[in-house]
Write a structure and sequence with these properties.
about 650 residues, alpha/beta, Rossmann fold, 26 helices, 20 strands
């Protein structure tokens, strides 16, 4: 067996070497170094079914060190996932299922998109939270149906990135005893030895976070087995197993050097390395007995799932209903019956407040909902009535106090969503969107329906000044593909925005909400806020025949634009007012609808938004004007700021050049 086992490990290494060499691009060193640990984990500890990668109670494996992607591709192929050897041969090529870094939804068995270091680590924390929450909803005294573990491999780079610090701290605080990371402690980064920039005691740091730590020789499989067995017994802390490894293990001339981190070995070194392993110098070679050994995972996984299915069928009705509701993949509630209606009111309220009222109405009815905020619950108003904090003592909670950890919050929400049992949302100030951006970008890439509640959306937050007043942030969000950005103008648009966000299943939504009060606009069938689902709609049309000009407004500026429309209309001008809460939803409409709202022949246009003018000319055209802010703000009451920065009805009228 020892000879077969060694050939299994070396096959992981040689497949990884060959994939990188074939592409003439990639990172062979990490797979070569972590092959021993990965082999033990995948063949002896990881509970999974290669023929059903979406089995609910599978263990999750997160390769946070995504640059070592050939490691997971080799394991997926060897254990029987839908990843033929041809895909390994097409590593990093157009149309392959083996891209440079693992991508969720593209490759069978890949649980999350990784590569930006630290993101996978933090995402795994979210998966662990989701597992414990689902278990609390489903498990009974006699039936521990949900009991899977979140495993991962992280690197020195992962643990240098700030997001991993935030996530590790929260994971320790929450005592996530179902989270185990193998740390590839090879002391090498692209620039060379980690001694150049990294001298801390990682194990001491993680113990301070509240983790259980273990140190092993990463090439001693017996030590790795013992460590993973010990990790299984730890139920009240996450576990970090530090595996002291040699990057590029077995390469006669590159082992232990940065030269094997991010470049192919080269044909001559490939031959010498395979000779050192005692492996044939044949590209993508797999011995039949090696493949048979790995493919035992299929029968083992099918049996585990079949046993679990029988266990699931014995659940009491209440728990079975909870399981089905949480894992259905969509929000099935009666929005029309639950959504509040906000009557017209000149005084109105901030859209963060109307959002809170909507959450109070909807959240208790959404299976698997988990809200939260980065220590701004009282400002974001994301803590709906009746919420229960998710804590180390209460896994039934539906609200997470993330602390001042925006980076981690975004990634943790991704993990909860990817788990398939939680519908997460989280809040912070819009100006801190930059801290969340890497996770939002990945949510968009992975098509995850995460909802971000970004309040204090403009200079309208007032006295806190330019450090807290967003200018470019909405434009930055709009630049990310597959993110729906919605900036509602009043309570009814806010209600419609939440409906749009919760009904979306193919990507994230950012709700952009105000601190200052906004009037509740007069509504009718013609300008119903339900039209928000189309991104833009005619809020008020010309009362003097066909419109000759169009005013486009979004968010807090709709009420300002409405006053301009009233003044122009009173003076006999034929003008249309368009509410445009979401560019992305409007773009998704057909040309007929878009041209109906914004007739191409009407070129006299003005748009207004309390933020950068960047991008708005696509809607007003070359002859139109945009009123916005292309500089940083000032500290003052918001009324003075809007006046000083020209965000007024008078400015709109003047910009139309009538």
């Amino acid at each position: 067996m020892s000879s077969l086992e060694q050939r299994c490990v070396n096959t992981i290494r040689t497949l990884s070497i060959d994939g990188v060499q074939s592409a003439n691009s990639g990172h062979p060193g990490m797979p070569m170094g972590m092959a021993d640990a990965a082999f033990v984990l995948w063949t002896e500890f990881l509970k999974h079914n290669p023929t059903n990668p979406s089995w609910t109670n599978r263990d999750r494996f997160v390769l946070s060190a995504g640059h070592g992607s050939m490691l997971i591709y080799s394991l997926l192929h060897l254990t029987g996932y839908d990843l033929p050897i041809e895909e390994l041969k097409n590593f990093r090529q157009w149309g392959s299922k083996t891209p440079g870094h693992p991508e969720f939804g593209l490759t069978s068995g890949v649980e999350t998109t990784t590569g930006p270091l630290g993101q996978g680590f933090a995402t795994a924390v979210g998966m662990a939270v989701a597992t414990l929450k689902l278990g609390a909803a489903v498990n009974t005294t006699d039936n521990n149906l949900i009991d899977h573990t979140i495993y991962g491999i992280c690197s020195d780079g992962d643990l240098m990135e700030g997001v991993s610090h935030e996530a590790a701290s929260l994971a320790g605080h929450l005592k996530l005893g179902n989270l185990v990371f193998l740390y590839d402690d090879n002391s090498i980064t692209i620039d060379g030895s980690t001694e150049l920039s990294f001298s801390e005691d990682v194990q001491a740091r993680f113990r301070a976070y509240g983790w259980h730590t273990i140190q092993v020789d990463g090439h001693n499989r017996d030590q790795i087995r013992k460590a993973l067995t010990e990790a299984e017994s730890v139920k009240d802390k996450p576990v970090l197993i530090s595996c002291k490894t040699k990057i590029g293990y077995g390469s006669p001339n590159k082992e232990g050097t940065s030269g094997v981190h991010g470049a192919p070995l080269g044909a001559d070194e490939v031959t010498k390395t395979k000779q050192a392993y005692g492996m044939p110098d044949v590209p993508f070679h797999i011995d039949e007995d090696v493949l048979n050994y790995f493919r035992q995972a299929i029968e083992k996984g099918q049996l585990a799932e079949a046993t679990w299915n029988k266990q699931r069928d014995t659940l009491p009705t209440q728990q079975r209903s909870a399981l089905d509701a949480c894992t259905s993949g969509h929000v099935s509630i009666d929005f029309d019956a639950l959504l509040p209606v906000f009557p017209a009111n000149e005084k109105g309220m901030a859209t963060r407040k109307s959002s809170s009222i909507v959450l109070d109405a909807l959240a208790p009815h959404i299976p698997g909902v988990v809200g939260g905020s980065a220590d701004l619950s009282a400002s974001n108003l994301t803590d709906f009535k009746g919420n229960v904090p998710f804590t180390a003592e209460n896994r039934n909670g539906n609200y997470i106090n993330y602390g001042i950890r925006e980076h981690a919050m975004g990634a943790i929400m991704n993990g909860m969503s990817l788990h398939g049992s939680v519908r997460p949302y989280g809040g912070t100030f819009l100006v801190f969107f930059d801290y969340c951006k890497p996770a939002i970008r990945l949510a968009a890439l992975m098509h995850q329906p995460v909802v971000y509640v970004f309040t204090h959306d403009s200079i309208g937050l007032g006295e806190d000044g330019p450090t807290h007043q967003p200018i470019e942030h909405i434009a930055s969000l709009r630049c990310i593909p597959n993110v729906h950005v919605i900036r509602p103008a009043d309570g009814n648009e806010t209600a419609a925005a939440w409906k749009a966000a919760l009904q979306r299943n193919d990507g994230p939504t950012a709700l952009i909400l105000t601190r200052q009060n906004l009037p509740e606009m007069e509504r009718s069938t013609e300008n119903s806020a339900a039209n928000l689902a189309k991104g833009a709609y005619v809020f008020k049309d010309s009362e003097h025949g066909e419109a000759e000009a169009i005013i486009i407004a979004t968010g807090s500026e709709l009420s300002i634009a409405y006053k301009a429309w009233e003044s122009l209309t009173a003076n006999g001008k034929a003008v249309r007012l368009v509410s445009m809460p979401s560019w992305e939803l409007f773009r998704a409409q057909d040309n007929i609808y878009r041209d109906k709202v914004l007739p191409p022949h009407i070129t006299r246009r003005v748009a207004i938004e309390a933020g950068t003018t960047f991008g708005w000319h696509q809607w007003v055209g070359d002859k139109g004007n945009v009123i916005g802010i292309d500089r940083f703000g000032e500290s003052a009451p918001y009324q003075r700021l809007f006046q000083e920065f020209g965000l007024t009805s008078e400015a709109i009228i003047n910009a139309l050049n009538w």
